[in-house]
Design brief:
43% helix; eight-stranded mixed beta sheet
Amino acid sequence: MSTTISIANEKGGVAKTTSTGSIGSILSRLNYKVLLIDLDPQADLTISLDVQAEDRNIFDCLFHHKKIIANKVNENLILVGGDPRLTPIDFMDSVKKDKEFQFENPRLVLKSLLNQVSNKADFILMDCPPNREIITQNALAASDYVLIPSEAHNFSVNGINNIIEYLEAFVSANLNPDLRLLGLFVTRYRQNTAIHSDMVEWFESNYPDELFKAKINENITIQEATQMGRELSIHDDIKRSSQLVKKNSPFKGLSDYQELVNEILTRVDHEPRKI
């Protein structure tokens, strides 16, 4: 069975998309079969991996093909692209017009689709839009776990509290009673910065069991990779091959995500805290 994880936070700009692509890529390089799903109408995940989605996008899969049609990124990594029509209004309009789903809970449309591939991938990772509306609700209803990225910034505190409270309400309403909080992790971290250190201490005090030890440091090389449409490991190989002095270790951004993936694999093997 696949392990399905939603990467979610109602606050934008916390590296959800970068994290989804990076985690998926690293898992695939560890020989796991990974399916990425871009649920954001801006399709940034699709763009960051240089994929031309065309009709191989999640909107067409849901309402036209009725099956998963994905784009190959590497031998173990495939992606179902995002689509501008994947807005709450367009989604609900399509649900209402779809005879197959007109009497179903609209939050379960995506879950029905993913049932096709539950035995064909080791991991399904979904990049959620920065809100709690129907697309995110579909992702949560179809997921085993939720993974929350957050900046080390005081504006992120309310966002973390809000999304965890929402997850608790989601489970209590029996929309997905088996949903688990996999954890939260800090992105765009700057070492030796007082405000970032203070915020990490706050996370450690308030969410000691949920916070991952790995921190994703602010790193220009991560931005370069996403802008060039490259997986982090490929970008790292290209960067190192062009250097006069060769380094044995990967660049910091890639190593940060590798540490995070190791922790994720450990937590998936052990039962996380129930929401």
